[in-house]
Amino acid sequence: MSAQAPGAWARWVGLLSAREAPHSLAAFRVGVGLCLWHAFGSPLITGTWSLIWVDVDHGGYRPLGGGWLVSALGGPTPAVIGGLLGLGLLLGLNLVVGFASRLSAFAALQVFLAITNLNGHTGGSYDALIPNLLWLLTLADSGAGASVDAWLRARWASPPTTPVRVSAWPRYLVIGQLLTMYCSSGLQKVGASWIPGGDLSALYYILQQPTWQRFDMRWAGHIFPLTQLATLATWLFEVGAPALILVLWWRRTRARPGRLRALANRLRLRDAFVLFGLGLHIGIMSLMEVGPFSTASMACYACLLHPEEWAALLRRLRPSRGPIPA
Prior knowledge:
Helix content is 63%, strand content 1%. By secondary structure, it is an all-alpha fold.
C-alpha cells in the first residue's frame, strides 16, 4: 500500500495540474453568456419583470426587501430593477465576446443574485446553478481563447506569446456540476410516477400543467406509452449520470487494457450521453417553460468535449483558414 500511494498521489496531482487549450472553456463562456441573455431578456420581453421584481409600492404584486446591492441603489423600484436587467444583458454580451471576461462574470454573478433573491415566489433550480457557473468563470481564465481579451493580450504581448494553455480543473468542475445536478435531481424523483415499478406517468402529467406547458398538450394522451418510456429514460439518465466519470476516465486511458474500457470506447458512451442530454433539454425547451434551466445546462456540455475536439470541429467548419488560433 505504501509503495502505491506516492504513485496514486502523483497521478492525482498530475490530473489537477494539467493544462490544455482554452477552446472548451471559451465555448462554455459563450454558452453562459447566452444563458444570461435568456435569464434577463425573457422577463423584459414578456413584461413580467415589473410585476415580480418590483415592490408593491411601485407596481409589483407584493412587498419586497432587497439585498445589499438593490438597497444601495435605492430599493426594488422600476428604475433600479430595469437598470440591473440592462446591466445583466450587457455583461452577458461581454461573456459572449470575451471582454473583461472574469470581471464580467463576477459582476454578472452579483447582478443575478441581487435580482433573483428579491422574490422567493419566483425562480427555480437554475437560481443556484447559474451562480455556480459564473463563479467557475470568475475563478478560471475564461477569456484565454476566442475572446477580445485574448486578442488584446496577443496584440500587446512582446515578444509574441506561445500558444495559450489554461488549467484543466475548471472544465472538470463544470462536468462535476452537471453530473451532480442530474444525479441529485434524479434521486429526488422518488414518487411512483417516476421510478421503475410505478406507472411512469410523471412526464404526461407535467405536460398537462398550465404552469409548465408552452401550449395545449392534451394530445399527449394519445401517446401515453411514449411519455412513460421518456419518463423512465429521463430518470435512468439522471440517476446514472455519475457513471459518466468512469466513462470519461476510460476514454482518457483508452490505451490501457481492459474489456469494459474497450467496450465503453467502442460504444462511444460519452457521445451517447451528450446526444441524449442535449435532446432532453431541447425537448424541454420546446414543450415546457422552465426558464433558463436548459440553456444553463447545455452550456455545461461544452466542457464534455476536449479542447482538441473543439479545434478539430472548428477546422472542419473553416478548412481554408489555416490553424485555429488560441
